[in-house]
C-alpha cells in the first residue's frame, strides 16, 4: 500500500479576481521507506504540495489517499487522528519553543498520544539519541547552534514514530555544511530505521545526496530521478526489462 497517493490532484487559489493554479493535475505516490526531494523554482508549488500531502489543505480537484483512505471522505476528527498518527513535520525555521529545553520541545507532539510518563521519557531519549543530541537534552534552543536546533526539530518529528516525515525547505536556514549534515542524518534514519521522508529544497548542492527527485514547474510535476536498479557491473548485461514506474 502507498502511504500517500495523488491522482490528478489540482489546487487552485482564488486571489480576488485572479485564480492561481498552484498544482496542476499531479500524479504522485510515496511508498514506505521512500526518500523523496521535491524541487523547483520559487512559486512552483512545493509548499502547496507538502501541505496537501500533510492533509493541512485539501485538493480543489483530483483524488488523494493517505494510508489507502480517500482523504476527502474523512470527518474533521478522523483527519486530526490521521495527521497526528501519520506525520512528523520539520519546518524551515525549526519552530522550537524558546523557553523549553530540547527534551521538552521533543516531547510536545506526544501530548496527543496519551503515553505514560516513563514511556514519554523513553521515547524522547530515543529520539534525541537518534539525532546525536542526548547530551543536550537540558539545553534551550538559544544555547544550541543552528544545526543542533534543526536536529532537535528532527527528533521532535521522529518522537511519535510517524509513517512519514514532511519537511518544507528544512535546510534553508542552515549553512552548507550543516545543510548537508542534516540531509545525511535524514538519509541515515531512512536507511537504518526505515523512516520515510518527503522534503522540499531549492538547493542543488543537496540533490546529489538524494535518491528520488521530483521537480515542479508551474504546478506540474516531472520526475527527475528515480531509484535505479543496481548498476550493472563490468561484463554483465544491463537489465533492460526492468522499469521503474512512478
Ligand atoms: N494561500 C494562498 N493563496 C493564494 N495563492 C497562494 C497561496 N499559497 C500559495 N499560493 C500561490 O500558489 C503558487 C505556489 O506557491 P507555493 O508556496 O506552493 O510555491 P513554492 O514552490 O513553495 O515556492 P517557494 O520556493 O518560494 O517557497 C504561487 O503562485 C503562490 O502565489
Ligand atoms: Mg515554499
Automatic annotation (TrEMBL):
It comes from Chromobacterium rhizoryzae. One of its GO terms (biological process) is response to antibiotic. One of its GO terms (molecular function) is ATP binding. Belongs to the ABC transporter superfamily. Macrolide exporter (TC 3.A.1.122) family. PANTHER family: ABC TRANSPORTER ABCH.1 (PTHR24220:SF86), IMPORT ATP-BINDING PROTEIN (PTHR24220). One of its GO terms (cellular component) is plasma membrane. Residues 223-246 are annotated as: Disordered. Keywords: Antibiotic resistance, ATP-binding, Cell membrane, Membrane, Nucleotide-binding, Transmembrane, Transmembrane helix, Transport. InterPro entries: AAA+_ATPase, ABC_transporter-like_ATP-bd, ABC_transporter-like_CS, ABC_transpr_LolD-like, MacB-like_ATP-bd, P-loop_NTPase. Residues 4-243 form the ABC transporter domain. This is ABC transporter ATP-binding protein.
Amino acid at each position: 500500500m502507498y502511504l500517500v497517493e495523488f491522482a490528478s490532484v489540482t489546487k487552485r487559489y482564488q486571489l480576488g479576481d485572479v485564480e492561481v493554479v498552484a498544482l496542476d493535475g499531479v500524479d504522485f505516490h510515496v511508498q514506505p521507506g521512500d526518500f523523496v526531494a521535491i524541487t523547483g523554482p520559487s512559486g512552483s508549488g512545493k509548499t502547496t504540495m507538502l501541505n496537501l500531502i500533510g492533509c493541512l489543505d485539501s485538493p480543489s480537484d483530483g483524488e488523494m489517499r493517505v494510508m489507502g483512505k480517500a482523504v476527502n471522505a474523512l470527518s474533521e476528527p478522523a483527519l486530526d487522528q490521521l495527521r497526528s498518527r501519520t506525520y512528523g513535520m520539520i519546518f524551515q525555521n525549526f519552530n522550537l519553543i524558546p523557553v523549553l529545553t530540547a527534551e521538552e520541545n521533543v516531547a510536545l507532539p506526544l501530548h496527543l498520544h496519551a503515553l505514560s510518563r516513563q514511556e514519554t521519557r523513553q521515547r524522547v531519549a530515543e529520539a534525541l539519541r537518534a539525532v546525536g543530541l542526548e547530551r543536550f537534552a537540558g539545553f534551550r534552543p538559544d544555547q544550541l547552534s543552528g544545526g543542533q536546533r534543526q536536529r532537535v526539530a528532527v527528533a521532535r518529528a521522529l518522537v511519535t514514530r510517524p509513517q512519514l516525515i514532511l519537511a518544507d525547505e528544512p535546510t534553508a536556514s542552515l549553512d552548507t555544511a550543516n545543510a548537508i549534515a542534516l540531509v545525511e542524518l535524514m538519509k541515515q534514519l531512512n536507511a537504518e530505521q526505515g523512516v520515510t521522508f518527503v522534503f522540499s529544497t531549492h538547493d542543488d548542492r543537496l540533490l546529489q545526496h538524494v535518491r528520488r527527485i521530483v521537480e515542479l514547474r508551474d504546478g506540474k510535476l516531472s520526475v527527475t530521478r528515480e531509484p535505479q536498479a543496481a548498476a550493472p557491473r563490468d561484463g554483465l548485461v544491463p537489465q533492460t526489462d526492468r522499469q521503474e514506474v512512478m
